[in-house]
Amino acid sequence: MAPPPASLWALSFFLALLVTLFVAATLRLLSILPHVRFQPKPLCKQPPVATRILIILGSGGHTHEMFYLLRDLDTSKYTHRTYVVSSGDAFSAQRAVEFEQALEQRETVKFESKEPESRNPDVFLNGTGIEKQQHAVRTPHLGPENYNIAIVPRARKIHQSLFTTPFTSLHTLLSSFPVLLSSPPLLPDQLPQTPYEAAARDLPDLVITNGPATAVILVLASLILKFFNIRGAQSRGKMKSVYVESFARVKTLSLSGRLLVRVVDRFLVQWEELEGKAGRAEYCGILV
Amino acid sequence: MEVNLATGGKSIAKACFVTTGATAPFEALIESVLHPSSIEALQNAGYTHLLVQYGAAKKLFDDRAKIARQSLLEHPLKTEHLEIGGFDFSLDGLKEQFQLVQCSNGVVISHAGSGSILAALRYQVPLIVVPNTLLLDNHQDELANAMAKSNYLLRGDVKNLAPAILEAENFKQKMAQFPPITSGKHRETKSFAGIMDEMLGFVE
Questions:
Q1: What is the CATH topology of the domain spanning A47-108+125-283?
Q2: Do B192 and A287 lie within an 8 Å CB cutoff?
């Protein structure tokens, strides 16, 4: 029997390589995808001093609901905010600026209404000083240096043909990586000076979305970063994701919701009938 | 004849505010609220002002409002006069109108868009939501029913608004607090801020 031609060897080698890659990729995906239910971290772990959160805004309704969700945002814990808007969505960008201004205003009112002697709280009182001090370091982080608005190209324009959608979506995906990797520095080529600036220049700790099309692509981009553990995305536990299904969804999940339900770390629904969808949806009551 | 909001505060004893959606106004709701049966219900419940945000449907509103005003003149009830006014859009939201309803113990009648529902409920006013039954594959009806079931609002029927207008009188007593209370001993749900803290390990 004649030995098989070289091309056959090449083919079988190639097939074996593909199968190995496929198995490896599947195992990796299984390890990065969240488990069935979110397990809160053990209490002993110290929460981070500075954090960056990524907030994905979408067309009118999604943006409205997002700012209702974020109404009690504590800027002393969430020290840097990145708002992601689609190109051409001036409304959402405007709302983000207004939201930040309202946060600042709220803090001013709070400060002025305090008694002068209590304005500097948690000074060392007695023996419990050290423990108190750790909480006392947290101060509000407000103003334009503590947030940024990132613009990504729209994945699909209204009336765009389905044929070109994959290409524009790919464009959106590629534009998502720099947005996830860092917020722009305050001064060009300047290294971060404080832990807060370092957090702002790092991967986000938390990605918050409520379902615009852009969100699906950004979450996909965050998965790719976790898959290859770029900048320690996976090993440092960065980019935890939370999806909040729209308040208007009572009985069925939205398309974005169905796409993301198995992928995000926490999937929250606001109506009881949606509880346990895909074995993962958590019912939290009305959050908006 | 526009309702003058700037000076209206003093003379408006009880206001009904109707919002129909800005981009695609819910025309059937405009017709329904200006129908003689609705006007009569409003008068019986002691309303003095009816204010309609009609969006792009100016012509329809003007026609129907004219007919309604005429019949009010021809058949005056013994109750107070009902003033009918309208406007198309408001650039800075509908805050002023909701506040007007709030301080005059009135009612808001709205299309079933989730944005309008959320905006109106922040003012703790009785809200009648009227789903647009002509829209296909729309979740308005589901949302309105679910919200009504939890006593956050009343569901109105576009074919006959009068029962809902009268029901709104007693609704204020049993109206549920919105948004639900998320802290303290009357805590009903988790807050989103609490969930964020949980995820990053900020524990009180």
A1: Rossmann fold (3.40.50)
A2: yes
What distance, in Å, lies between the first and last C-alpha atoms of chain B? 56
Of the candidates B114, B192, B183, B204, the residue with the CA atom closest to the CA atom of residue A266? B192
Are A240 and B191 an interchain contact pair (Cβ–Cβ within 8 Å)?
Answer: no
Residue B137 above 70 pLDDT?
Answer: no
Q: CB–CB of B199 and A285 under 8 A?
A: no
* Segment 74-113 of chain B within 8 Å of chain A by CB: 113
Please report residues of A whose CB lies closer than 8 A to that of B143.
Answer: 247-248, 250
Six-digit token string for A92: 């959402």
CB atoms under 10 Å from CB of B161, counted, come to 24
* Domain annotation for chain B: domains and CATH numbers: 5-177 (3.40.50.2000)
Write the DSSP assignment of B51-108 as a string of letters: EEE-TT-HHHHHHHHHHHHHHHHHS--SSPPPEEEEES--TTTTHHHHHHHHHTT-EE
Digit-coded pLDDT (tens) for A123-147: 444 444 444 444 557 899 999 999 9
Check if the beta carbon of residue B139 is closer than 8 Å to that of residue A250.
yes
Q: What is the pLDDT of residue A65?
A: 93
Task: Give me the residues paired with residue B86 across strands.
Answer: B52
